[in-house]
Amino acid sequence: MAVIEVTDLTKRYAGQTVLDRVSFSVEEGEIFGILGPNGTGKTTTVECVEGLRRPDGGSISVLGLDPIKDGRRLRELIGVQLQHTQLPENIKVWEALDLYASFYANPRDWRELLDQWGLADKRDARFGKLSGGQKQRLFIALALVGNPKVAFLDELTTGLDPQARRATWEVIKQVRASGVTVVLVSHFMDEVEELCDRVAVFDRGDIVAIDTPAGLIDGIDAEHQMRFRLMTGDAALRVDAPDGLQGDVPGALLSDVPRALLSGVPGVTGVTRTGDQVVVTGRGDFATAVTAVLARNHILVADLRIDKRTLDDAFVALTGRSFHL
Ligand SMILES: Nc1ncnc2c1ncn2[C@@H]1O[C@H](COP(=O)(O)OP(=O)(O)OP(=O)(O)O)[C@@H](O)[C@H]1O
Question: Which keywords belong to this entry (predicted)?
């Protein structure tokens, strides 16, 4: 069941169109990623969905409500972590949670959130004295204290160190497991790959693709490479002749066997060999087929590496430009 339906959302600032008929839906219980470089309209989209900005065109439904007309009712049901939230420097962590909880009819026990987000020992600390990572975790806890059905998290792990980012990801997975639908705005590819069930890729005020992270990556038709080293010596001596070759395999031919064999594997577009190093270039999932052919022919290899395609590559393939420009 879709909890968010956005159809032809259009938004202009001072006559400039920043969202041009954007449409997508978010299913109940999923982590839905909104991914794109800076300035492509992610925050504008999410803030229209939250009812914080008024669209110039299109329609939005969140949990069956119109974010503008039914704003009050909707705010009871959603939790929002804004990109630039601020709190008074002197407010204590527990006071902030208690205050936010008082805005909701059916809040969570904020003591549980303190534990879940590793803030229990900061309960009495003042906001101004928290580290960047602790502030970030407090903002997420504040977004969840109202027991929301949908949580919007904008730049979830900005400013966190690698360990804190991983810890945050684990808690977000728990949040999903508890049945909360999560909309995650991010420009971190690794975060989106790790967390999101589906991703909308934004570019210049438009969605260029919506799919699972794996689906986006599999959709790339770009060439990539696998590399390995042929094992030499006794370990590589084969008892069986390779496919299509009978009897003894002469030494010279043996050295060309991988190239001859692999060139015909579906998806392979090139095989180069320098000494015992082999580089196979191809499209799609050719690496699985290559590995199978090597195994079937008892060709022993070491140091096998497959250049992993990433969401970065998918973005370049979709838009023709680099994500980080
Ligand atoms: N209130 C505003 N008034 C005028 N222009 C705005 C306003 N808010 C955003 N913009 C412009 O609209 C475009 C989209 O901005 P938005 O913040 O939605 O992008 P974003 O993808 O969330 O970027 P970031 O990743 O940097 O947060 C940008 O060109 C931005 O400068």
Answer: Antibiotic resistance, ATP-binding, Nucleotide-binding, Transport
Give pLDDT tens digits for 191-211.
999 999 999 999 988 999 999
Rounded to the nearest angstrom, the distance between the alpha carbon of 242 and the centre of ligand 1 is: 60
User: Which are the contacts of 239, defined by CB distance < 8 A and separation ≥ 6?
Assistant: 298
Report in angstroms the alpha-carbon separations of 320 from 23, 115, 205, 251: 22, 45, 16, 46
| Reported ipTM exceeds the 0.85 cut | yes
pLDDT tens profile 1-44: 799 999 999 999 998 999 999 999 999 999 999 998 888 999 99
Ligand 1 atom 31: residue of nearest CA = 39
- Domains of the chain in sequence order: 2-218 (3.40.50.300), 224-306 (3.30.70.100)
- Judge contact between 260 and 282, C-beta under 8 A: no
Choosing from 42, 48, 319 the residue with most ligand 1 atoms within 8 A of its CB, the one to mutate for a pocket test is 42
Radius of gyration in angstroms for the set of CA atoms belonging to the chain, rounded to a whole number? 26
